[in-house]
Write a structure and sequence with these properties.
Layout lengths: L2 H41 L4 E4 H7 L2 E4 L1 E16 L5 E5 L4 E6 L6 E2 L4 E6 L2 H32 L4 H27 L4 H5 L6 E5 L4 E6 L6 E2 L4 E6 L5 E7 H4 L7 E6 L6 E9 L9 E9 L11 E17 L4 E3 L2 E8 L7 E15 L2 E5 L9 E5 L1 H14 L1
Antiparallel strand pairs: 1-19, 2-21, 3-12, 3-16, 4-11, 5-7, 5-10, 6-9, 7-8, 9-11, 12-15, 13-14, 13-16, 14-15, 16-20, 17-18, 18-19, 19-20
Helix pairs in contact: 3-4
């Protein structure tokens, strides 16, 4: 081996040794890091630990879960509606062309107010037939009176009197039918008697309220029985709630209800249950419960608004804690339960337990769905917010 070859071999050997040394140090560091992390995780405390002095300093008070007589509530969802008698579809009895619409959507109207006018050529024929029947009735009535007088005087025949009487009754019924037909179309028969024949009839509001959606335009032809608009009276608005089978036995007529308007910044209104259906809705095993609304503040309530309701079903002995003992985190509700550990002296350990809350009354809130806790379990009655902030801070540090 010459000198140049030897130098190259020696340089390559030194590079390989250096690389192996660096790789070994890196692997060792990575292994040590994992071991340290595992050791740290093993040492993380499960829950919060405070000394008696710390609890006294921050004002944490512990005690048992109380049993309080609180108003029990049932939660139900539903929407606002109006009774059938307070909502009207404005339909026409006879087809025709809309000549004029006198109102706009959202306008307040009174019962009997003009909403639109409809042109109908058949209306002219009805009026002509009515006038013809009235004129003919004059002769029929005179003949009937004459035959009646002859019958009473014993000078007429019974057959002639019966024939005139039948004709008289038939013509009178015919005139009555024409008058009823004209009245239904909003035309006064007395006006027709004076020779004032009209080619259009009015459409009048059947109830007082607010004009809803108008589904026809001026100049459109509408068939008989077609609804061209609706009128809604919101003064009698009520709420239809869905109560499920498991809660149905606790719901009764006369119970108080508190409503939250779901999509209206959770505005609160109150009401009273006034009716309970006696059949299930479809396959949901839910029953519709009707509640009248106390709207003294004249809030703008519209049929179809969604509500969340709390139905008060009376006082019951239930588990309750002070309002300050419940904290919220990530959309859930928790209380802090005391875990006693004798081997740690004066240290008290707390852990979070998820709960659901019910009615709030006299500074206490009803709690449900507790974990399986012994009857002697103590919780943080005051200072739960401090524990929550400490728990959050600990999570960030970790």
């Amino acid at each position: 081996m010459n000198i140049r070859t030897y130098k190259h071999f020696t340089a390559a050997l030194l590079i390989m040794v250096a690389f192996a040394s660096c790789s070994g140090d890196s692997g060792k560091k990575e292994t040590d890091k994992k071991e340290n992390e595992g050791s740290t995780e093993a040492k993380r405390p499960d829950g919060l630990e405070l000394t008696a002095e710390q609890m006294q300093t921050v004002g944490i008070v512990t005690g048992p879960i109380a049993q309080k007589n609180l108003d029990s509530v049932i939660k139900a969802n539903g929407q606002l509606a109006v009774p059938p008698q307070n909502k009207a579809d404005v339909s026409i009895l006879s087809g025709g062309i809309i000549n004029h619409i006198s109102v706009i959507e959202g306008q307040q109207v009174k019962r009997g107010q003009l909403l639109a006018t409809i042109k109908n050529q058949d209306l002219i024929k009805i009026q002509q037939d009515y006038l013809a029947a009235k004129n003919n009735f004059t002769y029929v009535q005179a003949e009937y009176n004459r035959q009646k007088q002859l019958q009473e005087a014993g000078a007429g025949t019974g057959k002639s009197f019966q024939s005139s009487e039948a004709t008289y009754n038939a013509e009178r019924s015919r005139i009555t039918a024409y008058e009823s037909q004209l009245s239904q179309l909003g035309i006064s028969p007395g006006r027709i008697d004076n020779g004032n024949i009209v080619s259009q009839f009015p459409v009048l509001s059947p109830i007082g309220g607010t004009v809803g959606q108008i589904t026809a335009n001026t100049g459109a032809f509408v068939q008989p029985g077609t609804s061209i608009m609706e009128v809604v009276d919101n003064s009698k608005i009520h709420c239809d709630l869905t109560v499920f089978e498991k809660d149905l036995m606790h719901v009764k007529v006369g119970q108080k209800v508190s409503f939250q308007l779901t999509n209206q910044e959770n505005q609160l209104i109150t009401g009273t249950i006034n009716g309970i259906n006696k059949s299930f809705e479809n396959e949901s095993k839910g029953v519709t419960v009707h509640a009248v609304i106390n709207n003294k503040e004249q809030k703008n309530l519209i049929p179809g608004m969604y509500v969340t309701a709390l139905i008060s079903t009376g006082s019951r002995l239930t588990a309750a804690v002070p309002v300050d003992a419940v904290v919220r985190s990530e959309g859930k509700q928790f209380i802090f339960v005391v875990v006693s550990e004798a081997d740690k002296g004066n240290l008290l350990k707390f852990k979070k337990a998820e709960v659901t809350t019910g009615v709030t009354e006299l500074g206490y809130v009803q709690i449900k769905n507790l974990e399986d806790l012994p009857a002697s379990t103590k919780v943080a009655l005051k200072g739960a917010f401090y524990l929550q902030s400490k728990a959050s801070g600990g999570a960030e540090e970790e």
